[in-house]
UniProtKB/TrEMBL annotation:
Protein name per UniProt: ABC transporter ATP-binding protein
One Pfam family in the UniProt entry: ABC_tran
Alphabetized UniProt keyword annotations: ATP-binding, Nucleotide-binding, Transport
UniProt entry tagged with the keyword Transferase: no
Residue ranges of every copy of the ABC transporter domain listed in the record: 13-243
GO molecular function annotation: ATP binding; ATP hydrolysis activity; transmembrane transporter activity
Cellular-component GO terms for this entry: membrane protein complex; plasma membrane
Lineage: Bacteria, Bacillati, Actinomycetota, Actinomycetes, Micrococcales
Length: 243
């Protein structure tokens, strides 16, 4: 008899017939025009596409920041299609983490406090583990520093630690290397790969086609539609990606 009671989390995403229209009448913007997308649990996906193609809108809907106009969205086994906007915060708290281009740290809080505050706000995670998270991103010796005392790469690493503190199923990274130089950007991509190896589903949005080399799959959006979805049989190591 098997004694293995390991439960493998469902960290997948299933999107069907997704549309998003901003505004109405003559000023309506059709940002997403019927997206069907399935991400396997633990997949690292890079979404490319020109400015205005709908990348952020798609991620915001999957991440529970925005609601769709039509279509179904299931994330980590939760169907959020009909959840009213006011109730999506519960879903976000329990399932998703975000990393932004400009870090979005609170300037008056130290690195450690920036991570602790998310644990306090969400009630998820364990404050005593915050030093571990900061050590994991290489900032064990800078926990007491304020964002203004840290480099861009160090601030982004705090943001990664903050995103991890609530143990999200899905991690969104919107232009995570956009404000960083090449070596620092490579380090951040390396961290994302490490989190991917730990089994998280990761969605990276970027204009930088080189970043796509680390992906399991590259999805290209054009004008609110999926123009291509390409599996990458041999994802590159972050250290080998240049731009
Ligand atoms: N809140 C909003 N109100 C009206 N239109 C919006 C809103 N948010 C996005 N849009 C429009 O929806 C379309 C898709 O925008 P989105 O930000 O998703 O594109 P993107 O691919 O992420 O672009 P970028 O690469 O420039 O960030 C654009 O035409 C944009 O102007």
């Amino acid at each position: 008899m098997s004694t293995d009671t390991t439960v493998v989390a469902n960290r997948g995403v299933r999107v069907t017939g997704l549309t998003k229209v901003f505004g109405q009448g003559d000023s309506a913007v059709h940002a997403l025009k019927g997206i069907d997308l399935e991400l396997a649990s633990g997949e690292l996906v890079v979404i490319l596409g020109p400015s205005g193609s709908g990348k952020t809108t798609l991620c915001n809907i999957i991440g529970g920041i925005e609601t769709s106009t039509e279509g179904r969205v299931e994330v980590a086994g939760v169907d959020i299609s009909d959840v009213p906007p006011g109730r999506l915060s519960d879903f976000r708290r329990d399932h998703v983490g975000f990393i932004f281009q400009f870090f979005n740290l609170i300037p008056t809080l130290t690195a450690r406090e920036n991570v602790e505050v998310i644990i306090e706000m969400t009630g998820r995670g364990n404050r005593t583990q915050v030093p571990e998270f900061l050590e994991a991103v290489g900032l064990g010796d800078r926990m007491g520093s304020f964002p203004s005392q840290l480099s861009g790469g160090q601030q982004q690493r705090v943001a990664v630690a903050r995103a991890l503190a609530t143990d999200p199923d899905i991690l969104f990274a919107d232009e995570p290397t956009g404000a960083l130089d090449l070596p620092t950007g490579q380090q951040i991509l390396g961290l994302l790969q490490e989190l991917h190896r730990q089994g998280r589903t990761i969605i990276v949005v970027t204009h930088n086609a080189s970043v796509a080399q680390i992906a399991d799959r590259v999805i290209t959006l054009v004008d609110g539609r999926i123009a291509s979805s390409q599996v990458n049989d041999h994802p590159a190591d972050a250290a080998d990606v240049t731009w």
